[in-house]
Protein backbone atom coordinates (compact mmCIF):
# COMPACT_ATOMS: atom_id res chain seq x y z
CA UNK A 1 0.00 0.00 0.00
CA UNK A 2 1.26 3.48 -0.80
CA UNK A 3 2.08 5.98 1.98
CA UNK A 4 1.26 9.61 1.29
CA UNK A 5 3.48 12.34 2.73
CA UNK A 6 1.78 15.75 2.49
CA UNK A 7 3.50 19.07 2.27
CA UNK A 8 1.54 22.28 2.69
CA UNK A 9 1.84 26.01 2.96
CA UNK A 10 2.39 27.64 6.35
CA UNK A 11 -0.80 27.80 8.41
CA UNK A 12 -3.01 26.11 5.85
CA UNK A 13 -3.57 22.90 7.76
CA UNK A 14 -4.67 24.72 10.94
CA UNK A 15 -7.12 26.78 8.95
CA UNK A 16 -8.46 23.64 7.32
CA UNK A 17 -8.74 21.88 10.65
CA UNK A 18 -10.74 24.78 12.02
CA UNK A 19 -13.07 24.62 9.03
CA UNK A 20 -12.04 28.03 7.72
CA UNK A 21 -10.67 26.75 4.36
CA UNK A 22 -11.94 23.69 2.43
CA UNK A 23 -9.35 20.98 2.55
CA UNK A 24 -9.75 20.23 -1.14
CA UNK A 25 -8.76 23.78 -2.09
CA UNK A 26 -5.32 23.56 -0.46
CA UNK A 27 -2.40 23.10 -2.78
CA UNK A 28 -0.84 19.74 -2.00
CA UNK A 29 1.65 17.41 -3.55
CA UNK A 30 1.78 13.69 -2.99
CA UNK A 31 4.62 11.26 -3.48
CA UNK A 32 4.17 7.52 -3.86
CA UNK A 33 6.91 5.89 -1.87
CA UNK A 34 6.56 2.38 -3.25
CA UNK A 35 6.46 3.47 -6.89
CA UNK A 36 7.96 5.81 -9.40
CA UNK A 37 4.86 7.77 -10.20
CA UNK A 38 4.82 11.45 -9.00
CA UNK A 39 1.66 13.48 -9.15
CA UNK A 40 0.75 17.02 -8.20
CA UNK A 41 -2.69 18.50 -7.86
CA UNK A 42 -4.02 21.99 -7.86
CA UNK A 43 -7.39 23.51 -7.04
CA UNK A 44 -8.67 22.77 -10.58
CA UNK A 45 -7.01 19.39 -11.15
CA UNK A 46 -8.68 16.08 -10.52
CA UNK A 47 -6.67 13.21 -9.03
CA UNK A 48 -6.16 10.28 -11.39
CA UNK A 49 -6.46 7.75 -8.56
CA UNK A 50 -8.96 7.53 -5.69
CA UNK A 51 -7.78 9.40 -2.62
CA UNK A 52 -7.57 7.73 0.75
CA UNK A 53 -10.11 9.60 2.92
CA UNK A 54 -8.88 8.13 6.20
CA UNK A 55 -7.83 10.75 8.83
CA UNK A 56 -4.31 12.01 8.25
CA UNK A 57 -2.19 13.03 11.26
CA UNK A 58 -0.50 16.36 10.61
CA UNK A 59 2.38 18.05 12.40
CA UNK A 60 2.03 21.76 13.10
CA UNK A 61 4.33 24.29 11.44
CA UNK A 62 5.19 25.90 14.76
CA UNK A 63 7.45 23.06 15.69
CA UNK A 64 9.93 24.07 12.96
CA UNK A 65 12.53 26.80 13.10
CA UNK A 66 12.03 27.52 9.43
CA UNK A 67 10.41 26.08 6.37
CA UNK A 68 12.90 23.18 6.13
CA UNK A 69 14.44 23.06 9.61
CA UNK A 70 13.31 20.69 12.33
CA UNK A 71 13.70 21.38 16.09
CA UNK A 72 16.53 19.70 17.97
CA UNK A 73 14.18 18.06 20.49
CA UNK A 74 10.52 17.44 21.24
CA UNK A 75 10.75 19.83 24.20
CA UNK A 76 11.96 22.64 21.97
CA UNK A 77 9.20 21.96 19.45
CA UNK A 78 6.55 22.04 22.19
CA UNK A 79 7.99 25.24 23.62
CA UNK A 80 7.95 26.96 20.24
CA UNK A 81 4.45 25.71 19.48
CA UNK A 82 2.85 26.64 22.80
CA UNK A 83 4.56 29.92 23.58
CA UNK A 84 2.36 32.98 23.49
CA UNK A 85 4.15 36.10 24.66
CA UNK A 86 5.60 39.32 23.39
CA UNK A 87 8.52 37.50 21.67
CA UNK A 88 6.29 35.38 19.44
CA UNK A 89 6.14 36.82 15.90
CA UNK A 90 2.60 37.93 15.19
CA UNK A 91 2.70 36.40 11.70
CA UNK A 92 3.10 32.90 13.19
CA UNK A 93 -0.10 33.19 15.30
CA UNK A 94 -3.50 32.48 13.72
CA UNK A 95 -5.19 34.75 16.34
CA UNK A 96 -4.74 38.16 17.94
CA UNK A 97 -2.64 38.31 21.12
CA UNK A 98 -3.46 40.88 23.77
CA UNK A 99 -0.60 41.38 26.21
CA UNK A 100 -1.35 41.56 29.96
CA UNK A 101 0.27 44.21 32.10
CA UNK A 102 2.45 42.51 34.77
CA UNK A 103 1.16 44.89 37.45
CA UNK A 104 -2.43 44.10 36.51
CA UNK A 105 -1.71 40.37 36.70
CA UNK A 106 -0.11 40.80 40.13
CA UNK A 107 -3.10 42.81 41.37
CA UNK A 108 -5.51 40.13 40.16
CA UNK A 109 -3.53 37.40 41.90
CA UNK A 110 -3.39 39.47 45.08
CA UNK A 111 -7.14 40.07 44.99
CA UNK A 112 -7.72 36.39 44.36
CA UNK A 113 -5.71 35.43 47.44
CA UNK A 114 -7.44 38.09 49.54
CA UNK A 115 -10.84 36.88 48.34
CA UNK A 116 -9.90 33.33 49.34
CA UNK A 117 -8.90 34.44 52.84
CA UNK A 118 -12.06 36.53 53.18
CA UNK A 119 -14.17 33.58 52.10
CA UNK A 120 -12.59 31.33 54.75
CA UNK A 121 -13.11 34.01 57.39
CA UNK A 122 -16.77 34.49 56.50
CA UNK A 123 -17.61 30.79 56.14
CA UNK A 124 -15.64 29.34 59.06
CA UNK A 125 -14.12 31.84 61.48
CA UNK A 126 -16.97 34.37 61.79
CA UNK A 127 -19.78 31.83 62.44
CA UNK A 128 -17.86 30.15 65.26
CA UNK A 129 -16.87 33.53 66.66
CA UNK A 130 -20.53 34.59 66.70
CA UNK A 131 -21.39 31.27 68.30
CA UNK A 132 -19.42 32.32 71.39
CA UNK A 133 -21.33 35.66 71.76
CA UNK A 134 -18.10 37.69 71.69
CA UNK A 135 -19.41 40.83 73.44
CA UNK A 136 -20.89 38.86 76.34
CA UNK A 137 -17.78 36.67 76.53
CA UNK A 138 -15.50 39.72 76.69
CA UNK A 139 -17.62 41.14 79.52
CA UNK A 140 -17.38 37.86 81.44
CA UNK A 141 -13.63 37.69 80.91
CA UNK A 142 -13.10 41.31 82.02
CA UNK A 143 -15.12 40.79 85.20
CA UNK A 144 -12.87 37.86 86.12
CA UNK A 145 -9.70 39.84 85.34
CA UNK A 146 -10.87 42.87 87.37
CA UNK A 147 -11.62 40.64 90.34
CA UNK A 148 -8.17 39.07 90.01
CA UNK A 149 -6.61 42.53 89.96
CA UNK A 150 -8.54 43.57 93.09
CA UNK A 151 -7.59 40.53 95.15
CA UNK A 152 -5.09 41.38 97.92
CA UNK A 153 -2.68 38.54 97.17
CA UNK A 154 0.05 38.86 94.50
CA UNK A 155 -0.71 37.96 90.89
CA UNK A 156 1.43 36.22 88.28
CA UNK A 157 1.50 36.59 84.50
CA UNK A 158 1.06 32.86 83.88
CA UNK A 159 -2.00 32.66 86.13
CA UNK A 160 -3.47 35.77 84.52
CA UNK A 161 -3.06 34.33 81.01
CA UNK A 162 -4.54 30.98 82.03
CA UNK A 163 -7.45 32.72 83.75
CA UNK A 164 -8.14 34.87 80.70
CA UNK A 165 -8.03 32.04 78.16
CA UNK A 166 -9.83 29.51 80.36
CA UNK A 167 -12.66 31.89 81.31
CA UNK A 168 -13.12 32.92 77.68
CA UNK A 169 -13.39 29.29 76.53
CA UNK A 170 -15.85 28.41 79.31
CA UNK A 171 -18.07 31.34 78.36
CA UNK A 172 -17.87 30.40 74.67
CA UNK A 173 -18.90 26.83 75.47
CA UNK A 174 -21.92 27.91 77.52
CA UNK A 175 -23.09 30.33 74.82
CA UNK A 176 -22.67 27.73 72.07
CA UNK A 177 -24.86 25.27 73.99
CA UNK A 178 -27.47 27.98 74.42
CA UNK A 179 -27.53 28.72 70.66
CA UNK A 180 -27.51 25.06 69.68
CA UNK A 181 -30.59 24.36 71.78
CA UNK A 182 -32.78 27.29 70.71
CA UNK A 183 -32.55 27.98 66.95
CA UNK A 184 -36.29 27.51 66.34
CA UNK A 185 -37.11 30.04 69.10
CA UNK A 186 -34.31 32.50 68.28
CA UNK A 187 -35.66 32.62 64.72
CA UNK A 188 -38.79 34.36 66.02
CA UNK A 189 -36.91 37.30 67.57
CA UNK A 190 -35.26 40.16 65.68
CA UNK A 191 -32.56 40.33 68.35
CA UNK A 192 -31.46 36.75 67.72
CA UNK A 193 -32.29 36.18 64.04
CA UNK A 194 -28.70 36.83 62.94
CA UNK A 195 -27.21 34.02 65.02
CA UNK A 196 -25.23 31.48 62.97
CA UNK A 197 -27.38 28.45 63.78
CA UNK A 198 -30.55 30.35 62.93
CA UNK A 199 -29.12 31.46 59.58
CA UNK A 200 -27.98 27.93 58.75
CA UNK A 201 -24.26 28.78 58.74
CA UNK A 202 -23.79 26.11 61.40
CA UNK A 203 -25.90 23.17 62.47
CA UNK A 204 -26.88 22.47 66.10
CA UNK A 205 -24.55 19.46 65.99
CA UNK A 206 -21.63 21.69 64.99
CA UNK A 207 -22.54 24.06 67.80
CA UNK A 208 -22.48 21.20 70.31
CA UNK A 209 -19.14 19.96 68.95
CA UNK A 210 -17.68 23.44 69.35
CA UNK A 211 -19.13 23.62 72.87
CA UNK A 212 -17.59 20.23 73.71
CA UNK A 213 -14.11 21.27 72.57
CA UNK A 214 -14.15 24.66 74.31
CA UNK A 215 -15.90 23.16 77.33
CA UNK A 216 -13.06 20.67 77.69
CA UNK A 217 -10.18 23.05 77.00
CA UNK A 218 -11.47 25.85 79.23
CA UNK A 219 -11.65 23.98 82.57
CA UNK A 220 -8.49 22.03 81.66
CA UNK A 221 -6.49 25.25 81.18
CA UNK A 222 -7.91 26.62 84.44
CA UNK A 223 -7.00 23.40 86.24
CA UNK A 224 -3.42 23.26 84.96
CA UNK A 225 -2.71 26.99 84.88
CA UNK A 226 -4.61 28.26 87.93
CA UNK A 227 -6.12 25.85 90.48
CA UNK A 228 -8.91 23.24 90.88
CA UNK A 229 -11.31 25.73 92.53
CA UNK A 230 -11.34 28.03 89.51
CA UNK A 231 -11.67 25.07 87.13
CA UNK A 232 -14.66 23.74 89.08
CA UNK A 233 -16.37 27.13 89.01
CA UNK A 234 -15.81 27.39 85.26
CA UNK A 235 -17.27 23.94 84.59
CA UNK A 236 -20.23 24.64 86.89
CA UNK A 237 -20.96 27.87 85.05
CA UNK A 238 -21.13 26.03 81.70
CA UNK A 239 -23.72 23.65 83.12
CA UNK A 240 -25.66 26.44 84.86
CA UNK A 241 -26.01 28.64 81.78
CA UNK A 242 -26.02 26.10 78.95
CA UNK A 243 -28.47 23.65 80.45
CA UNK A 244 -30.30 24.84 83.59
CA UNK A 245 -30.87 28.51 82.69
CA UNK A 246 -31.67 27.72 79.04
CA UNK A 247 -34.25 25.14 80.11
CA UNK A 248 -35.97 27.49 82.57
CA UNK A 249 -36.33 30.34 80.07
CA UNK A 250 -39.48 28.75 78.69
CA UNK A 251 -40.96 27.73 82.03
CA UNK A 252 -40.74 30.43 84.74
CA UNK A 253 -39.57 33.99 85.33
CA UNK A 254 -37.19 32.65 87.97
CA UNK A 255 -34.79 32.04 85.07
CA UNK A 256 -33.64 35.71 85.31
CA UNK A 257 -32.53 35.27 88.92
CA UNK A 258 -30.79 32.02 88.04
CA UNK A 259 -29.09 33.60 85.04
CA UNK A 260 -27.78 36.40 87.26
CA UNK A 261 -25.85 33.78 89.27
CA UNK A 262 -24.03 32.90 86.04
CA UNK A 263 -22.78 36.49 85.89
CA UNK A 264 -21.72 36.44 89.53
CA UNK A 265 -19.43 33.41 89.19
CA UNK A 266 -16.65 34.96 87.01
CA UNK A 267 -15.65 37.44 89.76
CA UNK A 268 -15.38 34.50 92.14
CA UNK A 269 -13.16 32.75 89.58
CA UNK A 270 -10.88 35.78 89.32
CA UNK A 271 -10.64 36.12 93.08
CA UNK A 272 -10.04 32.41 93.66
CA UNK A 273 -7.14 32.50 91.19
CA UNK A 274 -4.94 34.07 93.89
CA UNK A 275 -6.97 34.53 97.10
CA UNK A 276 -9.24 32.34 99.24
CA UNK A 277 -12.99 32.62 98.84
CA UNK A 278 -13.38 33.04 102.58
CA UNK A 279 -12.59 36.75 102.23
CA UNK A 280 -15.92 38.69 102.42
CA UNK A 281 -14.84 41.23 99.77
CA UNK A 282 -15.00 38.62 97.01
CA UNK A 283 -18.65 38.00 97.81
CA UNK A 284 -19.28 41.75 97.69
CA UNK A 285 -17.82 41.75 94.17
CA UNK A 286 -19.89 38.73 93.16
CA UNK A 287 -23.07 40.34 94.52
CA UNK A 288 -22.24 43.55 92.65
CA UNK A 289 -22.15 41.63 89.36
CA UNK A 290 -25.29 39.74 90.37
CA UNK A 291 -27.25 42.93 91.17
CA UNK A 292 -26.07 44.82 88.06
CA UNK A 293 -27.72 42.33 85.71
CA UNK A 294 -31.28 43.23 86.79
CA UNK A 295 -31.35 46.90 85.73
CA UNK A 296 -29.42 45.86 82.64
CA UNK A 297 -31.54 42.92 81.49
CA UNK A 298 -34.95 44.02 82.80
CA UNK A 299 -34.82 47.26 80.85
CA UNK A 300 -33.53 45.45 77.75
CA UNK A 301 -36.31 42.87 77.90
CA UNK A 302 -38.96 45.58 78.45
CA UNK A 303 -38.53 47.04 74.96
CA UNK A 304 -38.67 43.61 73.27
CA UNK A 305 -41.22 42.04 75.62
CA UNK A 306 -43.58 41.14 72.78
CA UNK A 307 -40.82 39.26 70.96
CA UNK A 308 -40.07 37.26 74.10
CA UNK A 309 -43.77 36.51 74.46
CA UNK A 310 -44.20 35.41 70.84
CA UNK A 311 -41.11 33.21 71.02
CA UNK A 312 -42.38 31.53 74.18
CA UNK A 313 -39.76 32.88 76.61
CA UNK A 314 -41.28 33.45 80.05
CA UNK A 315 -39.95 36.84 81.22
CA UNK A 316 -41.15 39.28 83.86
CA UNK A 317 -41.19 42.04 81.24
CA UNK A 318 -44.50 40.72 79.86
CA UNK A 319 -45.68 38.40 82.64
CA UNK A 320 -45.50 41.08 85.37
CA UNK A 321 -44.37 44.50 84.04
CA UNK A 322 -44.66 46.25 87.42
CA UNK A 323 -42.43 43.63 89.07
CA UNK A 324 -39.96 43.94 86.21
CA UNK A 325 -39.50 47.68 86.80
CA UNK A 326 -39.50 47.33 90.58
CA UNK A 327 -36.74 44.71 90.51
CA UNK A 328 -34.62 46.92 88.23
CA UNK A 329 -34.86 49.81 90.71
CA UNK A 330 -34.32 47.59 93.75
CA UNK A 331 -31.00 46.22 92.51
CA UNK A 332 -29.86 49.61 91.23
CA UNK A 333 -30.13 50.95 94.79
CA UNK A 334 -28.29 47.88 96.08
CA UNK A 335 -25.16 49.09 94.27
CA UNK A 336 -24.52 51.71 96.96
CA UNK A 337 -23.99 49.32 99.92
CA UNK A 338 -22.10 46.80 97.77
CA UNK A 339 -19.56 49.45 96.75
CA UNK A 340 -19.41 50.51 100.41
CA UNK A 341 -18.42 46.97 101.42
CA UNK A 342 -15.40 47.09 99.10
CA UNK A 343 -14.00 49.97 101.13
CA UNK A 344 -15.19 48.57 104.44
CA UNK A 345 -13.35 45.27 103.91
CA UNK A 346 -10.15 47.01 102.86
CA UNK A 347 -10.16 46.34 99.11
CA UNK A 348 -10.54 49.98 98.03
CA UNK A 349 -9.80 53.26 99.76
CA UNK A 350 -12.60 55.47 101.08
CA UNK A 351 -12.33 57.92 98.19
CA UNK A 352 -13.89 55.21 96.08
CA UNK A 353 -17.24 55.96 97.73
CA UNK A 354 -17.42 59.40 96.13
CA UNK A 355 -16.53 58.22 92.62
CA UNK A 356 -18.68 55.10 92.64
CA UNK A 357 -21.63 57.05 94.12
CA UNK A 358 -21.76 59.21 90.99
CA UNK A 359 -22.01 56.17 88.71
CA UNK A 360 -24.51 54.44 91.01
CA UNK A 361 -26.70 57.55 91.29
CA UNK A 362 -26.70 57.93 87.50
CA UNK A 363 -28.14 54.44 87.01
CA UNK A 364 -30.47 54.65 90.02
CA UNK A 365 -31.98 57.89 88.68
CA UNK A 366 -33.06 56.38 85.38
CA UNK A 367 -34.17 53.15 87.05
CA UNK A 368 -36.38 55.21 89.34
CA UNK A 369 -37.95 57.08 86.43
CA UNK A 370 -38.61 53.78 84.66
CA UNK A 371 -40.20 52.29 87.77
CA UNK A 372 -42.27 55.39 88.52
CA UNK A 373 -43.65 55.53 84.99
CA UNK A 374 -44.59 51.84 84.99
CA UNK A 375 -46.22 52.24 88.38
CA UNK A 376 -48.28 55.09 86.95
CA UNK A 377 -49.09 53.21 83.73
CA UNK A 378 -50.52 50.19 85.54
CA UNK A 379 -52.54 52.18 88.03
CA UNK A 380 -56.32 51.68 87.83
CA UNK A 381 -56.89 55.20 86.55
CA UNK A 382 -54.49 54.99 83.58
CA UNK A 383 -54.64 51.29 82.71
CA UNK A 384 -58.32 51.50 81.83
CA UNK A 385 -57.72 54.50 79.56
CA UNK A 386 -56.08 53.14 76.41
CA UNK A 387 -54.98 56.52 75.12
CA UNK A 388 -53.26 57.56 78.34
CA UNK A 389 -51.82 54.09 78.80
CA UNK A 390 -50.22 54.08 75.36
CA UNK A 391 -48.71 57.52 75.95
CA UNK A 392 -47.32 56.42 79.31
CA UNK A 393 -45.99 53.16 77.85
CA UNK A 394 -44.13 55.06 75.13
CA UNK A 395 -42.53 57.18 77.85
CA UNK A 396 -41.61 54.06 79.84
CA UNK A 397 -39.92 52.67 76.73
CA UNK A 398 -37.72 55.76 76.58
CA UNK A 399 -36.77 55.48 80.26
CA UNK A 400 -36.04 51.77 79.88
CA UNK A 401 -33.74 52.46 76.92
CA UNK A 402 -31.94 55.17 78.90
CA UNK A 403 -31.46 52.87 81.87
CA UNK A 404 -30.11 50.10 79.65
CA UNK A 405 -27.43 52.29 78.05
CA UNK A 406 -26.48 53.77 81.41
CA UNK A 407 -25.99 50.24 82.75
CA UNK A 408 -23.70 49.43 79.80
CA UNK A 409 -21.33 52.20 80.93
CA UNK A 410 -21.96 51.77 84.64
CA UNK A 411 -20.32 48.38 85.16
CA UNK A 412 -16.93 49.14 83.54
CA UNK A 413 -16.90 52.51 85.32
CA UNK A 414 -17.43 50.94 88.75
CA UNK A 415 -14.86 48.19 88.19
CA UNK A 416 -12.18 50.47 86.72
CA UNK A 417 -12.67 52.96 89.56
CA UNK A 418 -12.29 50.10 92.05
CA UNK A 419 -8.94 49.15 90.48
CA UNK A 420 -7.77 52.76 90.53
CA UNK A 421 -8.82 53.10 94.18
CA UNK A 422 -7.39 49.77 95.30
CA UNK A 423 -6.03 50.20 98.78
CA UNK A 424 -2.33 51.03 98.81
CA UNK A 425 -2.08 51.66 95.07
CA UNK A 426 -0.99 55.29 95.42
CA UNK A 427 0.99 54.97 98.64
CA UNK A 428 4.26 55.26 96.73
CA UNK A 429 3.37 58.89 95.94
CA UNK A 430 3.05 59.77 99.63
CA UNK A 431 6.04 57.86 100.98
CA UNK A 432 8.82 60.18 102.13
CA UNK A 433 12.31 59.31 101.02
CA UNK A 434 14.76 58.72 103.91
CA UNK A 435 17.20 61.57 104.51
CA UNK A 436 20.75 60.97 103.31
CA UNK A 437 23.26 60.56 106.15
CA UNK A 438 26.27 62.86 106.22
TrEMBL record:
<keyword id="KW-0496">Mitochondrion</keyword>
<dbReference type="GO" id="GO:0006784">
    <property type="term" value="P:heme A biosynthetic process"/>
</dbReference>
<keyword id="KW-0809">Transit peptide</keyword>
<dbReference type="GO" id="GO:0008495">
    <property type="term" value="F:protoheme IX farnesyltransferase activity"/>
</dbReference>
<feature type="transmembrane region" description="Helical">
    <location>
        <begin position="403"/>
        <end position="420"/>
    </location>
</feature>
<dbReference type="Pfam" id="PF01040">
    <property type="entry name" value="UbiA"/>
</dbReference>
<dbReference type="InterPro" id="IPR000537">
    <property type="entry name" value="UbiA_prenyltransferase"/>
</dbReference>
<protein>
    <recommendedName>
        <fullName>Protoheme IX farnesyltransferase, mitochondrial</fullName>
    </recommendedName>
</protein>
<dbReference type="InterPro" id="IPR006369">
    <property type="entry name" value="Protohaem_IX_farnesylTrfase"/>
</dbReference>
<keyword id="KW-1133">Transmembrane helix</keyword>
<dbReference type="InterPro" id="IPR044878">
    <property type="entry name" value="UbiA_sf"/>
</dbReference>
<feature type="transmembrane region" description="Helical">
    <location>
        <begin position="328"/>
        <end position="347"/>
    </location>
</feature>
<keyword id="KW-0472">Membrane</keyword>
<dbReference type="GO" id="GO:0031966">
    <property type="term" value="C:mitochondrial membrane"/>
</dbReference>
<feature type="transmembrane region" description="Helical">
    <location>
        <begin position="253"/>
        <end position="271"/>
    </location>
</feature>
<comment type="similarity">
    <text>Belongs to the UbiA prenyltransferase family.</text>
</comment>
<feature type="transmembrane region" description="Helical">
    <location>
        <begin position="277"/>
        <end position="295"/>
    </location>
</feature>
<keyword id="KW-0350">Heme biosynthesis</keyword>
<keyword id="KW-0808">Transferase</keyword>
<dbReference type="InterPro" id="IPR030470">
    <property type="entry name" value="UbiA_prenylTrfase_CS"/>
</dbReference>
<keyword id="KW-0812">Transmembrane</keyword>
Amino acid sequence: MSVLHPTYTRGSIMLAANGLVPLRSIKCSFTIVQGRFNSSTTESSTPKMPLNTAPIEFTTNYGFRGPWKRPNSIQEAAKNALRCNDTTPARELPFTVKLVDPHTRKDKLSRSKTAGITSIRKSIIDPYLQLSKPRLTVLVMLSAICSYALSPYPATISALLSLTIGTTLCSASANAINMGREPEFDRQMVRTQARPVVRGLLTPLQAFKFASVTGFLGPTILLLGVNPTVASLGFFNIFLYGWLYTSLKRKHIINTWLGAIVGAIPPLMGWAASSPLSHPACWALACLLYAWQFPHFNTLSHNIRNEYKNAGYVMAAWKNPKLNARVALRYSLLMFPLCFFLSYYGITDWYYQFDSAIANAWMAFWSFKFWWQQRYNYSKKVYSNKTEFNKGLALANVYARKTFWVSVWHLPAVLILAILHKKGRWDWLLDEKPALSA
